[in-house]
Amino acid sequence: MKYLLVEDNLELAQAICSRMGLDGHTIDHAAKISEAMDFAQAGEYDLILLDIMLPDGDGRSFLKQHRAAKNDTPVIVLTARSQVSDRISMLDLGADDYVTKPFDHAELQARCRAVLRRKTGSAQTMMRVGNVEFDPVGGHLTVSGNVINLRNRELRLLELLMNAKGQVFSKQKLVDRLFSYDDDVSDNAIEVYIGRLRKHLEGSSVQIKTLRGLGYRLDHD
To answer: What does the DSSP 8-state code read for residue 106?
Structure first.
């Protein structure tokens, strides 16, 4: 998954990026509302983690504009404000959830997973297609009973494809969703990860098809 983190505390931002990165998530970090606006306009994100107290204003102004633009990307607010009225106002503005600082990183990760499940309409973490079972939390794929442990990029690429079965993803779109703006990505990076996933899926009812000139699509029998 690709997240946008809007947080001006550099130490906290680095800790969040590090922990999320260990799970294979890609993070773009903005320290100001203006930077967050630029990222949101230029890229596509699965989730936004939004601090409220920022150097150039209140994060609620970003949230207002985000929802006014009919953008349905989930937003989890990171806030030091513990008053019920503050939390209610943020939820009413369009936040999907909030986490009060200081927080445990495991809780934040669990909240992210819960919000993303709600967006996809699924109450379960495990994903099943044909004779394939995929556990994005545990990081493994099961094909006809055989368990395969996935590397981080393979994990997030398969999660992206399985969450949008039948949708065509261009190579550039996959690069945008799997890598941050700071990553140095080679031209054949996506081909390498697609090739690895195809090898893992051999003998299954699931295929990653190449549509010449268009991109890739996950299909199943």
So the answer is: H
